[in-house]
């Protein structure tokens, strides 16, 4: 992790190191994604306008909240992207021992990969649980996958892009095809290199996906993964374990899609002229180097 990244996250925690700002974030999480007006926040916290404006500006400056004006009202909303980045930073270097696969219990016994003592591991587990409790309301409104703490930043970005593609086409689910678009749209690392070499790019894949599934009727606030897409995520975890990798990258996500083998994503790749066995072989070769 680069020092400038650590400093950036330290600034975010500093912004949260104030009781009024923590209360503001709790209110905005509870109202996510719509948010609240300045007047509504003030009515709950009962603090002077000038003080509230100072706190909101500090949170906005650190990217923790976003603002918009609607006629005479100024609205503030929690910034989900910053929360995802923050949790990704905190969970970097951690592993998980899942006891269940329910969406309401995504994290079980957490431990440091390089912990120096069992006591340190338990202390860190308590810290993660307190964070999960604090950010709990936002977890119910954004579709983060099981095992989120092991995903690389690139994989998390791919998941976010998959959510965006689902919303763009007004669908009420995230399928393997949206997951594929997210992986390609992330545009970094060996996955992009292998796909590009086989003539696959974001534009032709998106066009093929739209041709196959068309437009939907609208997306809910929380967009779930289809059972098939969720199986691909679980297979990505399996692939990481078989490679003895402590992280789940976009390469594992793509292998999960190929290993599942029945989703719309593999149909799209086939229609683009991709030899699926060759793709899997190339990807595994790259990962083994």
Which stretches are low in confidence, meaning pLDDT under 50 for 5 or more residues running? 93-130, 132-143
Question: What is the N-to-C order of secondary-structure elements (H for helix, E for strand)?
Answer: HHEHHEEHEEHHHHHHHHHH
Number of helices: 15
Q: Whole-number average pLDDT?
A: 75
Which architecture of the largest domain would the CATH scheme give at its second level? Orthogonal Bundle
Give the end-to-end Cα distance, rounded to a whole number of Å: 23 Å
- Number of folding domains? 3
Gyration radius (Cα, Å) is 21 Å
CATH superfamily of the largest domain: Clp, N-terminal domain
- Sheet with the most strands, sense and barrel status: 3 strands, antiparallel
Main β-sheet, spatial strand arrangement: 1-3-2
CATH topology of the largest domain: Double Clp-N motif
Shape: elongated
- CATH top level assignment of the largest domain: Mainly Alpha
What structural category do the secondary elements indicate? Answer: mainly alpha
Structural overview:
61% of the residues lie in helices and 8% in strands. It is mainly alpha-helical and 289 residues long. The chain has 3 domains: 76 residues, Arc Repressor Mutant, subunit A (Orthogonal Bundle); 58 residues, no CATH class; 138 residues, Clp, N-terminal domain (Double Clp-N motif, Orthogonal Bundle), CATH 1.10.1780.
Offer a few descriptive terms.
mainly alpha, 5 strands, 289 residues, two-stranded antiparallel sheet, Double Clp-N motif, Arc Repressor Mutant, subunit A, 61% helix, 3 domains
